[in-house]
Amino acid sequence: MKKITALAASLLIGVAVQQTANGQTKQSNSSKTNKTTTMENQSAQQQIEKSLTIYFDALNKSSVEQAVGQYTADGVFMPTGLPTASGTAELNIAYTNVFKAIQLNVKFDIEEITVADDIAFVRTQSHGTQLIHATGQKTEELNREFFLLKRENGAWKIARYMFNQPK
């Protein structure tokens, strides 16, 4: 009986040691995976910021081509008080109409970027002025924006975009 108890104890200790070693290996691998994931997310966030900077620049330059170029082919633009535009053809019409109506001079602040695989959620705020072409009046412009981006062929593109005014 003592031999069986000693053998069982040895097996339990051996299993415990192996599990501890495996756990350390898993933790080590998990740590490496977390570092890789963190680096990948940082790289994705930098690419997203670059893509949105190009988009924001397009808005301030009233560049339809540049703005629409930051969207996926099936992208959706949901502006406050205007119809939803879906797909490249409708996006071209929507941005042409927006830029005919106003000239933006705004600064954007990225408040949050959340990345999961090839999808990202981005929350921003913008502030500045808009010139209303019909009246020549300059007004304060303040919005909060929400973007859903997709990575397509290695590039982050806007899949969905909506905004509203906080006041």
UniProtKB/TrEMBL annotation:
Asked if Kinase is a keyword of the record, the answer is no
Coiled-coil region list:
none
What are the entry keywords? Isomerase, Signal
A single Pfam family, by name? Answer: SnoaL_2
Region Disordered, residue ranges: 23-43
Task: Describe the location of the SnoaL-like domain by residue ranges.
Answer: 55-155
Q: Where is the signal peptide?
A: 1-21
Name a GO molecular-function annotation.
isomerase activity
Positions of transmembrane segments: none
Sequence ranges of Low complexity compositional bias: 24-38
What InterPro entries is this protein classified in?
Answer: NTF2-like_dom_sf, SnoaL-like
In the UniProt record, does the keyword Signal occur?
Answer: yes
Could you tell me what this protein is called? Ketosteroid isomerase-like protein
